[in-house]
Design goal:
The structure is a single chain. This protein has 47 helices and 20 strands. By secondary structure, it is α/β, with parallel strands linked by helices. The strands form seven sheets. A five-stranded parallel sheet has the order 10-11-14-9-15, with helices on both faces. Strands 17-18-19-16-20 form a five-stranded parallel sheet, with helices on both faces. A two-stranded antiparallel ribbon has the order 1-2. A hairpin with a 2-residue loop joins β5 and β6. α10 packs antiparallel against α14 and α32 crosses α34. The two termini are about 50 Å apart.
């Protein structure tokens, strides 16, 4: 391990090579400097035990440490014979021209040199100004970078961006002194443009993710305040003066630096959600806001220190001050005070300057950084662009942003009118531009000829134009782009479109949880060779889902440091990365946002919980740390929605939010996809106005479905639209072949409507639990509304919607030969239908439900009945045979094992004729708990599936995987469903009379059991089968003794409630229980059954038994 290596190198002075067995000795003249990167809670440095014994130096940016030089790395001898000699690097220091250039421009702006000049004055150029010293340079950079305590990375990003902007400004003929002061006669326009350039640097220079220092400072302050309040209550009322004095002192300090209470509240609200838009309101506010932010940050530290001092004094006073009471009450008060003091100290265990928190609080704090990050929607993202001709001459300039009000708020109306009169339209409303205008603006800013024929169905709006500009300019200025956004929001599609338009080579690495550093190094060879072969061409390297792999530090070295194994990477490599967000699973924020109509609940599947000391998981974690001992791995992040690893601290400097699709933008995307993919019957399209009017109706149905599911707490994306269109086309063709005799328009309209119902039900309604009836009512209201009235045959009721689905499900199941003992209930109907349709269309599907809900049984029925031309059903003979490749998932599953299963299935698929290969991921939820994160490899496999994929799980998977497949979830069965299933299993006259009572008894036992899900459906099925077998063999009626025996065999696992379980069954059947002398009756036996549990609605689910 690295600790062993450091010990040998620094303590023993001897290093042994494990590959050659050679021994290397450290010379007395050798010097070692260990650089340890920042990490969450300084975890990397803490794991390097030897580093804790060495002198430590914390490097921070200040006016004394700012370096005015930059350093270039070059290989000493790239053609050396040995690898060690080839990797030697020599560093050469050169003056940082870009930093001096930027600082001189900022100094000139502060001196108002762009405001007071004449037409014949010489234009300002930084090369004519003497070099600035460190303190002056640091002062101007920190004043205008909009951060009170910037990091070196932040300053570097600010300099890279502003240098390019100021450089374009210097050589823009339209902004010369002669043009501005002479022709335009408005010198203030030049000053406005420089000020606007500085203000628009926020997207590139400010950090989007909240620093962990601020999060912990707030938590520390709150912990101190809570402990102080507890200590105050436990001691004497006099301590309240200390607390009040500290708070008042903090308030007095805040008022000292603010003009009024209103300005103080404005500052606090700005701190909660900073927006660039607020910086455009006043020209004189810029410098003052920066100073006030810095002062407020210092005030918060002073307040925390004051509260800590007050707390220490309060605790000492609480321990030493005598209680005013006497006797027994005095002893009680003293012990209470001591206990409170002890608990306060235990709550304030400190390590250095940070309050220690437990693992769960640690996860919450890490996720809180990202929940507070600056969102894309919080800014208008203005950007000043300069257009030039092919010969390098200035041809125009402008400002593009999401809102035209940005310019209007930053410039006087008089100057704006003068600029319009002279042809400068800076407040243009870019939201109204069409696709051609969007491509033109991209080409003019980025310097390439747009290709209007490339990906014509990709929708361009001002929103994704600004995102393309934001990414492209970062890459052009040497700043990596790390994009964070929800699954399915269009990140990958935008990157591919951007690279195609720029005609830039794009290398995509689909990162997953099982990827190792060696695999990344091997993959990097191709883009490196391409960059070396074409040194004048940018090469894009795209790491998709970069935070799913445990080798985060390697990605940080590549993306941020631009090194790989100690060797510098080519300058023309441009790095882009996408990351899944860190969002807490069902946090209070999410629950509030979802509202009362939330459909997501733990009743859909089991809740997986592992013991932290379990042998299997501990063994897996130990193995993982052997493979990657120094990677940022933390099993505590399992409480997040996406199962990801923490990002290295340096990478967080480059993260920005991708945002979400605006409803109008999403509607445009949906319309484009439907117009491209949706296929209507030829005879139906003969009446063009009638056929064309279907697309707006379908678009409205899909958009409203997305809105309904989002309000219910589910995730939807454009992937659902593509799946819906594919399934609609398949259902249309299938129904048309089954009803060939119907060619009139009315009959065809019914088939189109039925295809809509089936596709909507499979893609959207199947994932809903208790809200299925509400969804059907919402969809049918649209079919019966204004958009659907022009199609008279599209009218349908909510009940008709569900009946049409059940009719189609029953048709498919009727083609299947059911073995004896299989109940044809709602579970079998829906799961066979959904799974079969997805297999035939190669659409991935995940079936989620608790044990006993016929998940495996449904797939077995499909595999045994779909045999190609040999199928018993004539309807099934038109489909290929189904061949299943099963992979049993477990907490020790690895991504390589899953990949091998898919590779074997794909090879078999290529050589098998008239066969559909299916990869079955059995108990896929267990692999979700593996520390190797093996299911991340599914993201790429599901996107480009060469075979059909079916996943069976007892609990929900994370959103990134569920978003890539059809999601069928089975909620709990009700009493009527249990009764139907039991009757389908036994069909015995001796037991039919007791089936309803037994079903009601099990329903009550299940919902009242002390340990959730200890008893399940399989126990109920075994009870019914045991009774049926015994009665069929002996021909007797059901007796109390037989029922007790069956209950003990199947529900006797918890002895403490055995008697209550007996009474729950006996009291609900025709068999009476004996009189008991027990005075206390369990709630299991006495509680009444809810009426809603007896009657099964059209949205309820049921369960079936397995044939074994």
């Amino acid at each position: 391990s690295l600790n062993d290596l450091l010990f040998q190198l620094l303590a023993l002075g001897v290093v042994r090579s494990p590959s050659t067995a050679r021994v290397y000795h450290v010379r007395p003249s050798d010097c070692f400097l260990l650089e340890v990167a920042n990490s969450w809670h300084d975890s990397t440095a803490k794991r390097l035990f030897l580093c804790q014994q060495l002198p430590r130096c914390e490097v921070t940016v200040s006016s004394d440490t700012l370096d005015l030089f930059t350093y270039e790395a070059a290989l000493v001898d790239p053609d050396a014979a040995t690898e060690a000699s080839r990797s030697l690097v020599r560093w050469r220091s050169v003056p940082n021209y870009e930093m001096q250039f930027t600082a001189k421009y900022l100094q000139a702006f502060a001196q108002e040199r762009f405001l007071n000049f004449a037409a014949d004055d010489m234009d300002f150029h930084p090369d004519l100004v003497p070099s600035l010293d460190c303190r002056t340079t640091y002062a101007f950079l920190t004043m205008y970078c909009q951060q009170p305590r910037p990091s070196f990375v932040l300053l570097a990003n600010f300099v890279k961006y502003m240098y390019r902007q100021f450089l374009s400004f210097s050589y823009c003929d339209l902004l010369s002194n002669m043009a501005v002061a002479g022709a335009l006669e408005r010198p203030d326009f030049k000053n406005f443009f420089v000020r606007f350039l500085i203000r628009t640097s926020a997207d590139f220079s400010t950090r989007s993710v909240t620093t962990d220092e601020r999060v912990h400072m707030e938590k520390r302050t709150k912990a101190l305040a809570d402990a102080l309040a507890a200590a105050t209550q436990a001691s004497s009322p006099a301590l309240g003066l200390i607390s009040g004095g500290g708070n008042d002192g903090g308030r007095r300090r805040r008022r000292h630096h603010s003009d009024s209470e209103s300005s103080e509240s404005e500052e606090e609200s700005e701190e909660e959600g900073h927006s660039v838009r607020s910086d455009y309101e006043s020209d004189d506010e810029d410098d003052g806001v920066q100073v006030q932010r810095a002062l407020r940050t210092q005030e918060e530290r002073d307040l925390a220190a004051a509260m800590a001092a007050s707390l220490a004094f309060a605790l000492e006073a609480a321990e030493s001050s005598p209680s005013p009471t006497s006797g027994q009450s005095q002893t009680g008060a003293a012990s209470s005070s001591a206990a409170s003091s002890s608990s306060s100290r235990s709550r304030l265990r400190e390590s250095g300057s940070m309050v220690q928190v437990d693992d769960q609080e640690d996860v919450q704090a890490y996720a809180e950084q990202f929940e507070r990050m600056r969102r894309w929607e919080e800014s208008d993202h203005p950007f000043c662009f300069f257009c030039s001709t092919a010969h390098g001459n200035s041809s125009g300039l402008g400002i593009v942003s999401l809102s035209p009000t940005v310019v209007r708020e930053a410039i006087s109306a008089e100057l704006l009118e003068v600029l319009k009169h002279n042809g400068f339209r800076l407040d243009r409303d870019w939201s109204r531009m069409n696709r051609a205008e969007a491509l033109d603006i991209l080409g003019s800013i980025l310097g390439y000829e747009p290709d209007f024929s490339l990906q014509p169905n990709y929708v361009l709006t001002v929103d994704n134009v600004m995102k393309i500009l934001s990414i492209q300019l970062r890459l052009r200025y040497g700043i990596p782009a790390v994009i964070m956004g929800e699954a399915g929001c269009g990140k990958t599609a935008l990157i591919k479109f951007m690279a195609a338009q720029a005609r830039t080579p794009l290398f995509v690495l689909n990162v997953h949880g099982g990827m190792t550093g060696d695999q990344v190094r091997e993959w990097m060879e191709k883009p490196i060779l391409r960059a070396l072969a074409e040194p004048g061409v940018d090469v894009f390297v795209f790491f998709d889902e970069i935070n799913t792999a445990p080798c985060g530090s390697l990605f940080k070295t590549i993306v941020c440091d631009r090194f790989l194994d100690g060797c510098p990477l080519p300058e023309n490599l441009r790095f882009i990365a996408c990351a899944n967000p860190y969002r807490r699973a069902m946090s209070k924020v999410n629950q509030t946002a979802l509202g009362s109509g939330t459909d997501i609940s733990t009743s859909t599947g089991l809740s997986y919980a592992h013991h932290t000391a379990s042998t299997a998981r501990a063994q897996a974690e130990a193995t993982l740390r052997e493979l990657a001992p120094w990677e940022e791995w933390d099993g505590g992040l399992d409480g997040l929605v996406y199962r990801v690893h923490p990002l290295p601290a340096t990478l967080l400097e480059f993260v920005f939010d991708f945002g979400t699709l605006h409803p109008r933008t999403e509607e445009r995307y949906i319309t484009s996809i439907l117009e491209q993919v949706l296929i209507l019957p030829d005879s139906f399209k003969m009446d063009l106005p009638y056929g064309r009017s279907v697309i707006p109706l379908v678009t409205e149905l899909v958009c409203e479905s997305h809105l309904f599911l989002r309000n219910a707490g589910h995730m939807v994306s454009l992937r659902d639209v593509t799946r819906f269109a594919r399934l609609f086309n398949w259902f249309t063709a299938s129904l048309q072949s089954r009803y060939e005799a119907l060619h009139d328009r009315a009959a065809l309209a019914l088939r189109v409507r039925d295809s809509l119902v089936l596709a909507l039900g499979l893609c959207y309604q199947a994932r809903l639990g208790e809200l299925r009836v509400d969804y059907a009512a919402h969809v049918t209201s649209l079919l019966n509304g204004p958009s659907g009235r022009r199609h008279a045959n599209f009218a349908l009721s909510a009940t008709g919607f569900q009946e049409r689905l059940e009719e189609e499900e029953r048709f498919y199941v009727e083609q299947i030969r059911l073995p004896h003992g299989i109940a044809l209930n709602r579970n079998v109907l829906e799961q066979v239908f959904v799974t079969l349709v997805c297999i035939l269309n190669r659409v991935p599907v995940f079936v989620v439900g608790k044990p006993g809900t016929s998940k495996s049984l449904s797939l077995e029925l499909i595999a045994s009945n779909l045999n190609g031309q040999s199928s018993e059903s004539e309807f099934f003979r038109q489909f290929p045979a189904v061949e299943i490749f099963s992979y049993q998932c477990s907490p020790l599953s690895t991504s390589s094992g899953i990949e091998q299963c898919f590779e074997h299935a794909a090879r078999y698929q290529q050589n098998a004729s008239n066969t559909q290969v299916v990869v079955l991921l059995d108990e896929v939820g267990l692999a979700e708990q593996s520390p190797y994160r093996p299911l991340k490899v599914l993201h790429a496999l599901l996107e480009e599936a060469q075979v059909a994929v079916v996943g069976i799980s007892n609990w929900q998977l994370d959103l990134a995987k569920m978003n890539r497949a059809v999601h069928l979830q089975r909620p709990e069965p009700l009493v009527r469903d249990l009764e139907q299933t039991a009757l389908g299993i036994v069909r015995s006259r001796h037991l039919e009379g007791a089936i309803r009572g037994l079903s009601a008894g099990y329903y009550h036992v299940y919902n009242s059991q002390p340990m959730p899900d200890f008893f399940g459906l399989r126990d109920f099925y075994s009870l019914i089968k045991y009774l049926h077998a015994h009665l069929a063999e002996h021909g007797n009626a059901l007796t109390e003794e037989l029922l007790r025996t069956a209950i003990h065999r199947n529900f006797g696992g918890i002895p403490s409630v055995r008697e209550q379980i007996e009474r729950a069954f006996l009291d609900r059947t025709s068999v009476s229980a004996p009189v008991t002398t027990t005075g206390v009756t369990s709630s299991v036996a006495t509680a009444e059954l809810p009426a809603a549990a007896v009657d099964s609605s059209s949205s309820s689910s049921s369960s079936s038994s397995s044939s074994s």
